[in-house]
Amino acid sequence: xxxxxxxxxxxxxxxxxxxxxxxxxxxxxxxxxxxxxxxxxxxxxxxxxxxxxxxxxxxxxxxxxxxxxxxxxxxxxxxxxxxxxxxxxxxxxxxxxxxxxxxxxxxxxxxxxxxxxxxxxxxxxxxxxxxxxxxxxxxxxxxxxxxxxxxxxxxxxxxxxxxxxxxxxxxxxxxxxxxxxxxxxxxxxxxxxxxxxxxxxxxxxxxxxxxxxxxxxxxxxxxxxxxxxxxxxxxxxxxxxxxxxxxxxxxxxxxxxxxxxxxxxxxxxxxxxxxxxxxxxxxxxxxxxxxxxxxxxxxxxxxxxxxxxxxxxxxxxxxxxxxxxxxxxxxxxxxxxxxxxxxxxxxxxxxxxxxxxxxxxxxxxxxxxxxxxxxxxxxxxxxxxxxxxxxxxxxxxxxxxxxxxxxxxxxxxxxxxxxxxxxxxxxxxxxxxxxxxxxxxxxxxxxxxxxxxxxxxxxxxxxxxxxxxxxxxxxxxxxxxxxxxxxxxxxxxxxxxxxxxxxxxxxxxxxxxxxxxxxxxxxxxxxxxxxxxxxxxxxxxxxxxxxxxxxxxxxxxxxxxxxxxxxxxxxxxxxxxxxxxxxxxxxxxxxxxxxxxxxxxxxxxxxxxxxxxxxxxxxxxxxxxxxxxxxxxxxxxxxxxxxxxxxxxxxxxxxxxxxxxxxxxxxxxxxxxxxxxxxxxxxxxxxxxxxxxxxxxxxxxxxxxxxxxxxxxxxxxxxxxxxxxxxxxxxxxxxxxxxxxxxxxxxxxxxxxxxxxxxxxxxxxxxxxxxxxxxxxxxxxxxxxxxxxxxxxxxxxxxxxxxxxxxxxxxxxxxxxxxxxxxxxxxxxxxxxxxxxxxxxxxxxxxxxxxxxxxxxxxxxxxxxxxxxxxxxxxxxxxxxxxxxxxxxxxxxxxxxxxxxxxxxxxxxxxxxxxxxxxxxxxxxxxxxxxxxxxxxxxxxxxxxxxxxxxxxxxxxxxxxxxxxxxxxxxxxxxxxxxxxxxxxxxxxxxxxxx
Length: 995
Fold this sequence. Notes:
The protein is of the alpha+beta class.
């Protein structure tokens, strides 16, 4: 088995101490048992594979040590595989060889196997190291043992960081679990895994299924009801340890390391007089949160920081972004995704009511939004980070800070393969959308330009077509005109020739026809002339049409050139627009980046100045508050010292003076009590009073001067009474019944609301004490060392031998769970079933009495030398009490016989049978009251009723006197009533007693 440190006897540890970091010793009384302790023990005992995967410094190692101790007591064989003890640079064969050898030693198998020979033999057969581990389990471990075997695998995350592939190890363990169905002996073998990992991390090969066996054991922080052992270290230091512990758990969320650290800081504080809330809050800020990197010793906060910032770059952005979402509000819904599990393993967050929230206020203060923003800024490139931060902080014109062009290309290249935060992804999505819009706008511009060019080309083509058609029409008309003119010319020529011939023929043939022929010739000439003129006119018209066609052709060419020029200009303007757009975008991005850098620099300077100013003002305020508190405490201490001196003089004057003198002394006593009341204000916890002497003096004086009726003293006569003395009394919790025990064995039961009295006898002989368990059941102690449980109807329920000799004291705790008895030079603690839970051994005949302190399970004892001690009761049964603080020395002569605690736990009473008096003390050992009886010897004392403001004195004649215990203001009121008719000057009385 694994060697564990031997538990030391409880009474060998003289002082409780907090341990910051590391595993707690097996005997450490400050160990907090959580639900996870019970769950893992029960599941492993039942043979279930378990894994405890949580962040660092949560108490996993201490849990494993305690669980192993319990299991080994039950006869279970336990062993540990701890990778961190052997380093992470080993070869695969070295690691398996060392691990198996360690298991052989832990499980006491060394004498049954020659490891070196066995290992070499398997190596010679070329059997893999994973198969050798299986051979060890199947052929050696299980056949050579008969008990249940549990192997704890510690620091799983270190195992995963070994230089070789560890998938084979976890696949083998899974196969060992699955073999239970085939070979029943495998049910005796169980594995438990502890570390900072998730089940998904154990088998990482894509070809293998995940590690899907075992039960997850959740380790939560300390709860207040679980953490009661931690209050032991505050006893005797803080006035209200439970309230201080509650406030510490509020700040730490129960995180074990932080809780131990802050408690250790508290016990080293000089000034513990502040309220629990103020004390813990100021210490947390001063010693943990402020300048945390310098004060984080041993490292805790740095471990959390490094877990995030030193992870792979792909996951760092996602973890920071996810944590930023948790900080933004009241957490985020928990979905147990891989990213959320990784964030939980850092320790920063915890799953609570199906939401992921920050673990505690300390983490929220250290790892705040500013820290996350800075971490994300350090993660992002400069050009990206400045634009992203400006986009985050801007409420208007957010689009102007988005990335475009080459900047967006560079950002997407940087983001490739990274798991970024949701805000980063939104920023990039918005940037892509704006870039798409810019590209779409550019494409639209190109489309418009293309359409303009196409329109121009269409116009040019139309113009060319019209020009061609016009030219063709003109050519056709010209050709037709030329043909017509040629026809007319030809026709005129023929006519002319015919006419000339006819004229010549006529001239020859007949002279008489000359004139007539000449006239006809002239007419023909005229006709020919006209025809020629018409032809010429047709030619001129054709030429005009040709010129018009040529003009139209030139205009068409001009329009074509103009259209080509327009297209060229549009193309050139489009290219220029593209270039200008790129230039403007680049210049704009540069200007924006420059301005953002300048703004960030100014904002950073301003924020630092504000932070420095705030810190300075805070330091100044704290210094002023500290100085003011110091002045107030000094003034209170001086006033308290004066009151102590004045009270001692007043009491001496009262005891030695005449009746008249006593009345005058009463004025001084009320005056001193008034001054004390002004110092304590409304504080009702007497333990915190700077002085108690004025309270004691005024109580003694008013008891002497007031009648029993005026004091409210009640008397109860127990009947019947024999010659045997009464040794103990107690009142029921419902305030209806009183019981008394007589030395001769008689038990008297008396109703406090009527006159009903009954009694019964214990045959075995004389009794020494009695107490109520509840309204019907009693516990009775006797001189033969026996404790008996009975009801008030004389029914015997249970008895057990508690001591070998007389039981001298008997007391219950406030919840009636534990009973303490005195005898045999020891005090023993029992439950009401008669099982012994603890014991305190004393020197010979030293202990007188013991009493539980209500609501705290602490014990007060008083010894013959007058020493009062306070003891803390551990939760774990079977362990002894631990003394809390140094004893309070109350007496040097005439020591008391009995001690009993008040119901509020702030005071206790002691009975001095020689002086026939009862004294009341606070927990600092200062006397705050004294009651004496002049009519009969006092045998027993008890605080009566729930409020603890009455004390019952039992006389040996069987009469019980119940005295009220007045608070300071009540005593002042009683003193003022006595003084009202005795002071000559009414004015002085009004000043002394204004209310």
